[in-house]
Amino acid sequence: MDYYDFDDNNTDGLAEKTKIDLSEIQSAVLRILQAIGENPKRNGLKRTPERIAHMYAELLSGYQMDSAMVVNDALFDVKYDEMVIVRDIEFYSLCEHHMLPFMGRVHVAYIPDGKVIGLSKIPRIVDLYARRLQVQERMTRQIADFLCDVLHPQGVAVVVEALHLCMSMRGVQKHNARLTTSAMHGAFRSSPATRQEFLDNISRGASPLQI
Ligand SMILES: [Zn+2]
Questions:
Q1: Dihedral of the CA atoms 151, 156, 159, 164 (nearest 10)?
Q2: What's the gap in Å between 75 CA and the centre of ligand 1?
Q3: What's the pLDDT tens digit per position in 173-186?
Q4: Cα–Cα dist 53/26, whole Å
Q5: Where residue 22 falls among pLDDT bands split at 50, 70, 90?
Q6: What is the pTM of this model?
């Protein structure tokens, strides 16, 4: 079994051209500031609409990423049919119900069928789907489906563990509630032993998620 540990959130080199309407976001934020009774002209807030517009362009850049570019030149024909696991890929996303962050870790495994993908591409695939307005369940499935589509492997498994600020900051305030979602395809779905091998691997030495 191959084992790789990822802890970075490296996105450089990605084609991230923004088509987000920055001036429209700025005027919307300005109206929010007025609506909550703030003075948008005071020093600390003067550039806030502009900062938020640029922030959304960055946090939501997944819409503009070209998925073909993400895997560009990184698919290799290799005779290797053991499980490949990339665990602890850090991610940050925004929940689409509240536009508040949810963040945590993604663990990905696949069993190749003649094709492997460059390892540095897997965190980029995660970003491709994390940097959008999301629900965790859909993001999990999209990452798994994308890998199925490009690799046609014998199986793909994706597990996402995340903390949602909309749960921690609002309402019932469950500060440490974690949500775990998974998507299993092929061998990971049909073979309990294969699935268990993956789950055992990602729980080995795992530390609890913390903000
Ligand atoms: Zn939410």
A1: 40
A2: 35
A3: 666 678 999 999 99
A4: 6
A5: very high
A6: 0.87
Catalytic sites, residue numbers:
95-98, 136, 164, 166
Where do runs of H (alpha helix) occur along the chain? 22-35, 48-59, 67-71, 121-130, 136-151, 165-168, 187-190, 192-203
> In Å, what is the CA distance from 29 to each residue of 15, 45, 155, 206?
27, 10, 44, 40
Cα of 28 vs centre of ligand 1, distance in Å, is 20
**pLDDT by residue (tens digit) across 137-181?**
999 999 999 999 999 999 999 999 999 999 888 876 666 678 999
Instruction: Tell me the C-alpha distance between 81 and 112, whole Å.
Output: 5
Helix axes 121-130, 136-151, angle to 10 degrees: 140
Kindly give the distance from the C-alpha atom of residue 133 to the centroid of ligand 1, in angstroms, as a whole number. 10
Ligand 1 center from residue 69 Cα (angstroms): 30
Distance 91 CA to ligand 1 centre (A): 16
- Tell me the sheet residues that pair with 179: 162
CA 152, CA 95: separation in Å to the nearest integer? 30
Which residues, at least 6 apart from 22, have a Cβ–Cβ distance to it below 8 Å? 50, 53, 54, 57
Could you count the other beta carbons within 10 Å of the beta carbon of residue 107?
Answer: 22
| SS3 of residue 2 by DSSP | strand
Q: What is the DSSP string of 57-72?
A: HHHTGGGT--HHHHHT
Q: Which of 121, 158, 161 is nearest to 143 (CA)?
A: 158
Distance between CA atoms of 121 and 10, rounded to whole angstroms? 10
